[in-house]
Design brief:
Blueprint (H helix, E strand, L loop, with lengths): L8 E5 L5 E5 L5 E4 L2 E4 L11 E3 L5 E5 L3 H7 L9 H10 L7 E5 L5 H10 L4 E5 L3 H15 L5 E4 L12 E6 L8 H7 E11 L2 H14 L2 E7 L6 E4 L2 E4 L9 E7 L6 H8 L6
Parallel strand pairs: 7-8, 7-10, 8-9, 10-11
Antiparallel strand pairs: 1-2, 1-6, 3-4, 5-6, 11-15, 12-15, 13-14
Bound molecules: S-adenosyl-L-homocysteine.
Length: 275
């Protein structure tokens, strides 16, 4: 990666861990509560360098990780939190070379995680109905990973249908994923994985009922993840007082057959994973 360059996005991190994003420009000035910091003090320096503002406030400069970036990037829609992004990649088993479809693109947080995981030999198609969200998401993606050749954006309503076939993984972050289940039956390859995020239990019940009645899905899992961070500060070693307690329930299903059969329904549909 080398030293910090003009045009790069960095985060200035203060001693309390607060983050301030900026794009480095020659001659640029970062202004913070009436204090100034010249971008030229950062350009050409190694990542992590500590700098001081005109009045002595200290910051370290880092290239943000994806998790740090998604929490600071401009958002059109609510983003998927890092704890869920990481979980999705493993539970939907997104692998290098995979053909993945997602809907909707929102602010592009999941899109970036998926693009990194499918790699250059894989492909991601993102459905989105709102042009303004799509534009914002694409700007966020370009700012973080540059231009990509393994991504197709479709300004289309996925409830109306999907053109893709032999899809390895389908990931849905929209309000009525059950409307996509009939399309998923056609689009997913046998062994393909359906994953959706939903905030409420009635939605989970409805998508589960729809998945079961399609008769080609099995190995269902419904779960949520909770991330509780801790304070480790001298003798004070305890959980943080605050946490993000609820984001979404994840529902995962595997396409176990190419066509409906009662045999498969009996064999797989009621099976709950024993972990
Ligand atoms: N996963 C995204 C957030 C998605 S928010 C992220 O990580 O940033 C939900 C998105 O779904 C919104 O952008 C909304 O416009 C889009 N959406 C809702 N219904 C849709 C549909 N029928 N087809 C395509 N996109 C849809």
């Amino acid at each position: 990666m080398g030293p910090l360059r003009p045009g790069e996005l960095i985060h200035l991190v203060d001693r309390k861990g607060r983050r301030y994003p900026l794009v480095l420009r020659r001659g640029g000035v970062f202004q913070f509560s009436g204090e100034n910091l010249s971008h030229d003090d950062l350009i050409g320096q190694a990542e992590g360098i500590q700098v001081e503002t005109s009045r002595g406030t200290r910051f370290n400069a880092f290239r943000p990780t994806l998790a740090e970036y998604v929490l600071k990037m401009p958002r059109g829609a609510q983003v998927i939190y890092p704890k869920d992004l990481g979980t999705i990649l493993l539970w939907a088993d997104v692998y290098p070379g995979a053909t993945v479809v997602e809907a909707g693109i929102g602010s592009g947080a999941l899109t970036m995680a998926l693009l990194r995981s499918v790699g250059e030999k894989g492909h991601l198609t993102s459905y989105e109905i709102r042009e303004d969200f799509a534009r914002r998401a694409m700007a966020n993606i370009t700012a973080f990973i540059g231009s990509v050749s393994n991504h197709t954006l479709k300004l289309q309503d996925i409830y109306e249908g999907m053109d893709e076939r032999e899809v390895d993984r389908l990931i849905l972050d929209l309000p009525e994923p059950w409307k996509v289940v009939p399309h998923a039956v056609e689009a997913l390859r046998p062994g393909g994985i359906f994953l959706c995020l939903l905030p409420t239990v009635p939605q989970v019940e409805l998508v589960m009922r729809t998945l079961r009645s399609a008769r080609v899905f099995g190995f269902f899992e419904v779960f949520e993840t909770m991330l509780r961070t801790w304070v480790i500060d001298g003798p004070s070693v305890r959980p943080d007082h605050r946490m993000v307690a609820h984001t979404a329930f994840l529902t995962v299903a595997r396409k176990v057959a190419s066509r409906s059969t009662t045999y498969l329904l009996n064999d797989f549909s009621e099976s709950a994973p024993q972990k």
